[in-house]
Design brief:
Length: 406
Amino acid sequence: MEPQVVALTTQTVVDYLKTTPVHQQVFAGVSEFAACQISEGNVNLIFRVSALHNSQQSVIVKQALPYAWRYPDFKMPVDRSRIEYDFLQNQARYCPDQTPKIYYYDENRYIIIMEDLNRHLVMREGLMQQIEYPHVDRHMGLFMARTLFYTSDLYLSSTEKKAWVPRFINPVLCKVQEDLVFTQPYMEHPNNRYTSLLEPQVRSIYADDDLRSEIFLLKERYMSHAQALIHNDLHTGSIMLNVQETKVVDPEFAFFGPIGHDIGSYLGNLALSYAAQEYHAKDDTKRTAYRQWLADLIVRTWNIFEEEFLTLWENHGNGDWPSAAFRVKYMRNLLQDTLGFGAAEMMRRLIGMAHVHDFWTIDDPHIRATAESLGLNIATSWLKQRYRVEDIRQAVEMLLAARPSI
């Protein structure tokens, strides 16, 4: 039976907020409010509530419904709200600077009230504007290293790890990923959408059973390899930042899965931005320079991640893995997993169902298809050649060497 959830509206969200501790915690002395619904998301109801006479004094109110609010026939578990809250609590423990403040959680109405990141921009949008963020390499490298290491078998005891895993069983949202990332984009499917000029390249992908077999190896790993607690939707649309701060949001897909999925999803989205600069960076010189910045960002992010992850393993590991050779092989396999999962993320954003703003904002179909073709070729090289990669620079060399097929 579906939970009975009363959906908030712009009229009722203010009355609701006044019944919570947030009224005094954030809005002491404020009696008049303004509320608006933020419409970017498809799944959850999200409202910005602010003091009527001070729009900078504000919070975000996020409510999970038993369906996707924009698509009421698409049923979803409301427990995703609890998973998101629990993940953010763990995230705050190890990466407080990358976590939005959580003011209140209502487990009965599936509502989270959190910090309004109104001083920040969605990273995807910033990259489309060629903004260079001087600290995001370190922020994201440390974020991934810490959240992933401290929830892995390298740190937790076997007993602790097995107790954690059931708290984040997330079958419905994992099935969404299994279908949209690892199955549908590689065959004829009614959910798939792509620019018509990509037809020959897409047909080639459909006919490539070797490529599909590599994707299915990743799918099997995604479904069975509970390496660590992963965000599971870690792309540039789930990161809010400015030149000083970086915040990671929207972890409702979280579960115990393969570490390389988080890293790959993030680096894959940087590669998508690289491809999309075909349109967004109008000037040739600016495009070349910004693409190099993105390529360097991929290298720096992985290197910071790797250094921090190995340092944590050395200083805080549980001692169950006493083999220097194992560490070397583990990190090499993790880099290769990262490239595979990054490739799957790129392909599903280009020829699957859930596309991204980098490309759908390109009106000219030829320019869009050229950028998308470049993205597909980067992804294909990462996927098929990942087993020979032993250093992140080799992956970036593939990115820099790739050319569109159009």
